[in-house]
Amino acid sequence: MSAMRLSLFHVVLLVTVCSAQEKPQPRVDARVDSKIVTYLHELTLKPQGAVQSFFLVVQLPMTIEGRQKLLDVRYSVRPQAELKKGDNLYAMFAGTNFTTPIKLTIEADVEIYRYDLETARKRKGPATDLTPEERKRYLASEKFLEKDDPSIQAASLQITTGGDLETVRAIQEFIQSKMRYSGPSPGDKGAVGALAAGQGKCAEFSDLFVALCRAKEIPARTCEGFVTTPPKPGDTSTHRWAEVFLKDLGWVPFDPLHIARRANTFEHSWNKYIYCARLARVDPVLGRNMDGGLSTGNSFHIDRAFAVAGEIAIPRGPSDSPAYRPAMVTDLDKAAELAAAAKSGKPRKQKNVPKQQPIANDETSAARKLTMAKELAENGKVESARKRFQEIVDRYPKTDAAKEAGELLENMKD
């Protein structure tokens, strides 16, 4: 793909981003080692005048062996397409001529499993080593992870060096001695800015942690996604943490901010992370944010809300439920065409998009969705429950769960 096409995805400055306003969340049990989480991610697009056309890309959770499995995604507004880039998955929306706010709701079911240093040590068999290309990538200096900057190099010399794990622990202790949490703030300072300021949000803690690991010749990378535990006042559910590659253990997650705030320990973290990105610090499609877009005419800003709608504990490890398979998958070239069309004010119409087909006899998935729908109804979320019951009837017509869902729908009419 040409640099010109790729750059279309980086025009996020046309979108004014507002602070996320979190919805009240039900208390979830982060002590459960394996569970299915259903979450709602709402984005309200607010035009600053008449918008002739727009193009929006939103990150979705990925499936990662041993960490999480994306089971299903539902949209209030059908996207133009879904895009895969490596492990990353995105939904793309486009439209024309809007002058009033548009609300997009993405609802996803994700199996998540606790994984930390403690569980990595119990893993059977050595981890696959990095290729030379991967090692080079995760030791490199890059935007926000400026490991070759003189200030980062000088800081790394203050950190005691032992084995890789002992060095990583020393880096965490160094960060805790130098950084304090500032709460959410616009923009990212990067590792150099974080070290100079001595404070920051999760991004600054993880950027400095990864840059120092790389300065010590330990492969590391940042991760981005959501935490499912209710945020403290003033915080948001979007979060950034880190992973370090350790010999015989492979990629091990560490959360520099949550360790510093004693929400985790160095060895143990709660099962609360939903991964949306971990390929690169600067997302290869979006740039810095978990969503972004461009428009013609006037710009628009985005209000975001995240809420956990339900949770079910499952036996340790992945279930037998199949992972989500995008039905509208496209590639970067076609995505760039959509973006170019939006920029010109003439969005392309999506042709021959396959519809979701009924899964007649998937009793396990239908029963799981029925349990979550009942929880929604019990929590007073009648309309959401109604939609979930109808989805079960439509997608799993030959299951016992579909029969019960149909009966519940009839009762809701009374």
Low-confidence stretches: 1-28, 347-357
Q: Globular, elongated, flat, extended or rod-shaped: what is the shape?
A: globular
What distance separates the N and C termini? 57 Å
Mean pLDDT: 84
Number of domains: 3
What does this entry look like structurally?
With 414 residues, this protein is an alpha+beta fold. It has helices at residues 3-7, 117-122, 132-137, 150-157, 164-178, 190-197, 202-215, 256-260, 332-344, 363-378, 382-395, 400-413, and strands at residues 15-17, 34-47, 51-60, 68-75, 81-85, 88-98, 102-113, 180-181, 199-200, 220-227, 238-246, 250-254, 273-277, 291-297, 300-313, 329-330. The longest helix has 16 residues, at 363-378. It starts with a helix and ends with a helix. The protein has three domains: 3-114 and 284-351, no CATH class; 117-269, C8orf32 fold (Roll); 357-414, Methane Monooxygenase Hydroxylase, Chain G, domain 1. Strand 5 (81-85) and strand 6 (88-98) form a beta hairpin. The strands form four sheets. It has a five-stranded mixed β-sheet with strand order 1-15-2-7-4. The chain has a five-stranded mixed β-sheet with strand order 14-3-6-5-16, covered by helices on one side. The chain contains twelve helices and 16 strands.
What's the SSE blueprint?
Blueprint: H1 3-7, E1 15-17, E2 34-47, E3 51-60, E4 68-75, E5 81-85, E6 88-98, E7 102-113, H2 117-122, H3 132-137, H4 150-157, H5 164-178, E8 180-181, H6 190-197, E9 199-200, H7 202-215, E10 220-227, E11 238-246, E12 250-254, H8 256-260, E13 273-277, E14 291-297, E15 300-313, E16 329-330, H9 332-344, H10 363-378, H11 382-395, H12 400-413
Parallel strand pairs: 1-15, 5-16, 8-9
Antiparallel strand pairs: 2-7, 2-15, 3-6, 3-14, 4-7, 5-6, 10-11, 10-13, 11-12
Helix pairs in contact: 4-7, 5-7, 6-7, 10-11, 10-12, 11-12
